[in-house]
Recover the amino acids of this structure.
């Protein structure tokens, strides 16, 4: 029996029937990237996937590339870096949903589920829930692309690292929010989102993901696909990773 009243943008999740082609990311994805604090980076070596939570910076273009790019930094000896060297194909997941999990409707006081049965909705949780339903766009985006480790000492590395640091340096509001959530209120250290260790450190490598295509899903279950049309039929030449 056919699904009753499917979403207007419905298509089977395993197919790509009519992707939106554009030289730029869809505005919904751009808004999501601007709202979200972190993204999930999936890399793979052989048959074993690896997922990392990452700081990131989205740029619609750079002086070195005209197509959309996502900048990240990584420890040169990390698992994800080793995966990227062997296999530059990556998938990113970004969403702007507030993921606080409320207590279940009928909590069992003897179970050890998450969250604990004694948890109740706080005023902060209510605030986050309201933000999630009204102020944010409530989509998730899977972004596929090819990662490239930027060669050390180049103008491109300097530019990307400066942009990435600028985008992940937060002001007074972030410090106030950390205090509200019970975290440290200093400008650096454990409450800086890992900026000092994962971005500013001299040993980190800059990774650029050249976006190729992706899929958008909303909270109603609708999905639609997009493809970055850069005017070419295949990737350009040159080394994949500047290692």
């Amino acid at each position: 029996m056919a699904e009753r009243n499917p979403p207007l943008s419905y298509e089977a999740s395993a197919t790509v029937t009519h992707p939106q082609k554009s030289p730029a990311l869809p505005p919904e994805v751009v808004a999501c990237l601007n709202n979200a604090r972190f993204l999930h980076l999936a890399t793979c070596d052989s048959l074993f996937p690896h997922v990392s939570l990452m700081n990131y910076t989205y740029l619609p273009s750079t002086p070195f590339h005209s197509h959309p790019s996502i900048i990240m930094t990584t420890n040169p000896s990390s698992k994800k870096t080793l995966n990227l060297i062997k296999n530059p194909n990556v998938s990113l997941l970004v969403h702007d949903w507030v993921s606080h999990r409320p207590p279940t409707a009928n909590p069992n006081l003897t179970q050890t589920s998450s969250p604990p049965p004694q948890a109740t909705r706080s005023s902060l949780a209510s605030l986050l829930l309201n933000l999630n339903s009204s102020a944010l766009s409530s989509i998730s985006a899977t972004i596929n692309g090819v990662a490239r480790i930027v060669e050390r000492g180049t103008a491109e590395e300097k530019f990307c690292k400066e942009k990435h640091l600028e985008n992940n340096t937060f002001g007074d509001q972030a410090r106030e929010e950390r205090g509200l959530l019970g975290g440290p209120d200093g400008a650096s250290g454990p409450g800086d989102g890992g900026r000092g260790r994962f971005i500013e450190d001299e040993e980190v490598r800059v990774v650029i993901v050249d976006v190729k295509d992706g899929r958008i899903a909303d909270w109603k279950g609708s999905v639609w696909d997009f493809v970055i049309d850069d005017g070419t039929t295949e990737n350009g030449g040159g080394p994949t990773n500047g290692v």
